[in-house]
């Protein structure tokens, strides 16, 4: 089976990840974010994460998402897509050089 090798350069251009989306526009990054998004290819995957849904997040979604799919996390009894009670979070402390490798390995493991 032939595998596609994903370089760090092509990976950055194909996926835009916006974390703490509720804070990005709140602290005045709208102009900078518009400049960044305008330089990215139109055909890309955008992941937008926010702990809360605000007007700022909806504005950000309009700027960067095409046909967005929303996932809301509630108590397990309320929603099939809820955060499991046994969820474990981990953090990896790594150098700047290693960050791309870690993200690519994670992405390959979930594809």
From TrEMBL:
Tell me which Pfam families the record gives: DEAD
PROSITE patterns named among the record's database cross-references = DEAD_ATP_HELICASE (PS00039), HELICASE_ATP_BIND_1 (PS51192)
Keyword ATP-binding in record: yes
SUPFAM superfamilies membership: P-loop containing nucleoside triphosphate hydrolases (SSF52540)
PANTHER family (UniProt xref)? ATP-DEPENDENT RNA HELICASE DBPA (PTHR47959:SF1), ATP-DEPENDENT RNA HELICASE RHLE-RELATED (PTHR47959)
- What is the official name of this protein in its record? Helicase ATP-binding domain-containing protein
Q: Give start and end of each Helicase ATP-binding domain.
A: 1-71
Q: Which UniProt keywords apply?
A: ATP-binding, Helicase, Hydrolase, Nucleotide-binding
* GO MF, one annotated term: ATP binding
């Amino acid at each position: 089976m032939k595998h596609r090798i994903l370089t760090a350069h092509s990976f950055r251009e194909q996926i835009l990840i916006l974390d703490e989306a509720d804070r990005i526009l709140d602290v005045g990054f709208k102009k900078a974010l518009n400049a960044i998004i305008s330089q990215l290819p139109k055909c890309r995957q955008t992941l937008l994460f926010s702990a809360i849904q605000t007007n700022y997040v909806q504005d950000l979604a309009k700027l960067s998402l095409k046909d967005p799919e929303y996932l809301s996390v509630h108590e397990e009894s309320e929603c099939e897509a809820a955060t499991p009670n046994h969820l474990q979070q981990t953090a990896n402390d790594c150098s700047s050089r290693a960050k791309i490798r870690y993200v690519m390995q994670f992405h390959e493991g979930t594809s």
